[in-house]
TrEMBL record:
GO terms for molecular function: glycosyltransferase activity. This is Group 1 glycosyl transferase. Residues 16-203 form the Glycosyltransferase subfamily 4-like N-terminal domain. Keywords: Transferase. It comes from Caballeronia arvi. It comes from the Bacteria. InterPro entries: Glyco_trans_4-like_N, Glycosyltransferase_grp1. The keyword Ribosomal protein does not apply. Coiled coil: none annotated.
């Protein structure tokens, strides 16, 4: 069968885990013998048709005031205009329809709608092609895709979200199937009235195959760097990810035998502010680091996200290397971390709770090692990429068969 994948960004344009997850699915579907094509956006110029790792990719210049794949964030006025256009971008929808009419896939899989707008879901219906919507984040409910504003998680949708997302609830019903990467994400959308008439609602947890993690030895008291216990944050550096909460709580511990490594990138100005505000020989900013170069040297991963993150792929990566995870009780994270078994869970609104957990782990090496062993054992559930890819293939085959009948 032939599947068309549509998303705002596609590697090498990467803004988060969604792009990496999408690429893994696309390449996996191709390896299973199916035809694939990716439709994504680019900055200005002409259409670009290229092949990335054997996959045909069509990059369409975005019809908006800027391309959202840029690393540095534009000012608030520009962002407001961009999101207004992206609420229902008829020009991008028209371009997508023309391309998909030529490609004639058996099914369309939409991942991130940013850049295309929610209107992309109507294309399949107009062309008679079954469409799957994969929920990576809160795109349908929040223009920022994270339900997070002014340093805190939104208890309810703000006025701008409600206005800019007026069409999304009804448009969501154009999807023939919706996939939640976490049960939490799917349940939240359905409870808010999205995908009410979508017949097929399924949960497919992400999977990651990390060959570099397969030969990592079991954790031992000497695995970390001598005399130091290494705590780490891995991912995009921004306020919603809880980076400031983590650094505050870490410094409050005052343990000279521990270091906090920050592996990832963020907006340059925000990074500079953090480096100045939290200057300490115990906190090291590493920039982007490959998993194989980082995880064998760390003892605990902290995922302190303040908003309801869908399914933090970095947790799976840590498990693969036998690294226990301390994560916030937000979004899909508690679906992966079994508190006290393969990691620890904390409530980010409770000041000092994270510091207490980290302090206890730093003083109890035996518990740390036990959590690490269970983390490694947990990796099996999330490392079978072929099984994961075939779940998507079967869903698409079922939809195509129903459409043909």
């Amino acid at each position: 069968m032939k599947i068309a994948f549509v998303s705002g960004l596609y590697p090498p344009a990467i803004m988060g885990g969604a792009e990496i997850v999408l690429q893994t699915i696309v390449e996996g579907v191709r390896e299973e013998g199916h035809e694939v094509v990716v439709l994504t956006t680019k900055e200005g110029g002409d259409h670009v048709r290229e092949v990335v790792n054997g996959v045909r990719v069509i990059r369409v210049p975005i019809q908006n005031i800027y391309w959202h794949g840029l690393r540095d964030r534009p000012g608030p006025l520009k962002r407001a205009v961009w999101h207004s256009v992206d609420s229902l971008n008829v020009r991008m929808v028209s371009i997508a329809k023309d391309i998909l009419m030529q490609e004639r896939p058996d099914t369309i899989n939409v991942h991130k709608i940013d850049g295309w707008s929610a209107g992309i879901l109507g294309v399949g219906q107009s062309l008679g092609i079954p469409t799957v919507q994969v929920l990576h984040s809160w795109d349908f409910m929040c223009p920022n895709a994270n339900m997070f504003r002014k340093g805190r998680m939104c208890a309810s949708r703000c006025l701008s979200c409600r206005i800019l997302r007026i069409p999304h609830r009804s448009i969501s019903n154009n999807a023939d199937a919706v996939v939640g990467i976490s049960q939490f994400m799917l349940d939240q959308h359905v409870s808010e009235g999205y995908f009410e008439r979508t017949k097929h609602r399924v949960v497919i947890h992400n999977a990651r195959d990390l060959p570099s993690a397969k030969n990592v030895p079991p954790r031992s008291p000497t695995r970390g760097l001598p005399k130091k216990t290494i705590l780490a944050f891995v991912g995009t550096i921004n306020q919603g990810k809880g980076i400031e909460l983590l650094m505050n709580e870490f410094l409050s511990i005052g343990n000279p035998d521990a270091e906090l490594w920050i592996a990832g990138k963020g907006q340059s100005q925000y990074e500079a502010t953090l480096k100045s505000r939290y200057a300490s020989p115990q906190i090291k900013f590493l920039g982007y680091v490959e998993q194989a170069e980082l995880f064998p040297h760390i003892d605990v991963l902290i995922v302190p996200t303040l908003f309801h993150e869908n399914f933090a792929t970095v947790v799976l990566e840590a498990f693969a290397f036998g690294v226990p995870v301390v994560g916030s009780r937000r979004g899909g994270t508690p679906e992966m971390i079994r508190d006290g078994v393969n990691g620890k869970l904390f409530e980010p609104n409770n000041e000092g709770e994270l510091a207490t957990i980290l302090s206890d782990l730093l003083q109890n090496r035996d518990e740390l090692e036990s959590l690490g062993r269970e983390a490694k054992a947990s990796a099996d559930e999330y490392s079978d990429v072929r099984r994961w890819v075939n779940e998507y293939i079967r869903l698409n085959q079922d939809l195509a068969a129903i459409h043909e009948s």
